[in-house]
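Appendix B.2, paired examples.
Example (i):
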Amino acid sequence: MKILNYLVFYLTRILKFVGNITLIAILLTITFGIISRYIFSKPFTWTEELATFLMVNLGYISGAIVTVAKKHIVADFLIQRAPKKLQTTVLFLSRFIAISVFLMICLSSYRMFTSTSVYRSASLGLPRQIYYIPLFSMSAFMVFAIIVDVLNDIFPGFNIQEIAIKKEEELSIKEELIEAREAKEKIDEFLNDSQKAISKDNNVG
């Protein structure tokens, strides 16, 4: 279990790094396109296609990261008021549905990128199959991450990701408390100085 959790944890960190690089590449590509079009009046033909390809990859990478971090937007205000058994049942069903959907996407995309298609993109000449590789790989990773999440519920205490998030939250709370204490000390010091100045003025008057 610990090995599986370490795999999810470090693969997620790698995905975050790759996602940051991809975002930077998108910004640079769009910037090159704007400069070439509006400054030199000779637009690069490949910028839009490359930015689109990178954006697709970034979307899949972001989906995988959000799945591991459990940061999807959910409307759980009703289920939170339900009995514990019902919450557990809904959680199990949601994970089962998620695994089923991602498996279907994974299998479909695998067939697409292993197919023998002669189609290539207009500007970069990229083969059509390459667009399905991130969809396949990220779907497979999300299936793996959800299965590990289910195992963590059965065998608690090995969720490295959850432990790291809790440590980050505790560190953030400590930093906020320190900042609040420092701000309070500065305010108290300012009020004391103001009172001393007022008292001095009154004595002089």
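Example (ii):
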Amino acid sequence: MGAIVWNVLTWLLGIPSSSSHALIGGLLGAAITGHGFDAILLPGLTKVLLTLLISPIVGMLAGYFLMKLVLFLARGASPRINVFFKRAQIVTATALALSHGTNDAQKTMGIITMGLLAGGVLPGFAVPTWVIIACAAAMALGSVMGGWRIIHTMGGKFYRIRPVHSFTSQIASAAMILGAALIGGPVSTTHVVSTTILGVGSAERVNKVRWGVVGQIMVAWLLTIPISALVAMICYWIIERII
């Protein structure tokens, strides 16, 4: 509930926030309210938080240097190269969507399986097939029904994005997210994609990016974990009183 409330609120405002951070905040808020700070396993939490915090920085650097490389390789090319960048996005966008599923869907499966295990439905921690199908279907349905608010922010409010920017940021984002999934690191796909877009734009010209919009998004990112935790705490308290 903590994650859902925050994600819906930021979606309504058109702010691309991290569902990964929201899930972490929700888990922390519920666990602390129910069992105190001793319930938190610090080694696991530290690994997750470090991955979530470092990935946006790496994403921006990856976008920056990859854009520099693409601009170098495309130097002297005619405007017709934009046709290549447009068509190539069929592959790069598919790769990005695939990487997104390998990371975000896994987190949701983990939360649901944890709930089933805690409720005594499962004898051990193993993800049922129906959970995999349900999470995949929900992500696909959410992508279809999500609307244009966040799409507009990511695709138009940072700067005027051209085919070369989309092509480059998709390659950098897909490589980072897929790589993190393969080593078991839960990164924020929202943060990675956002920062690679910023890195790509900065590589062409730093003042090209509308940094005021970036600042607003950064504030939302900082608020995600504490607000999700607070909502989870309130929900836990209410449910406990009802039960």
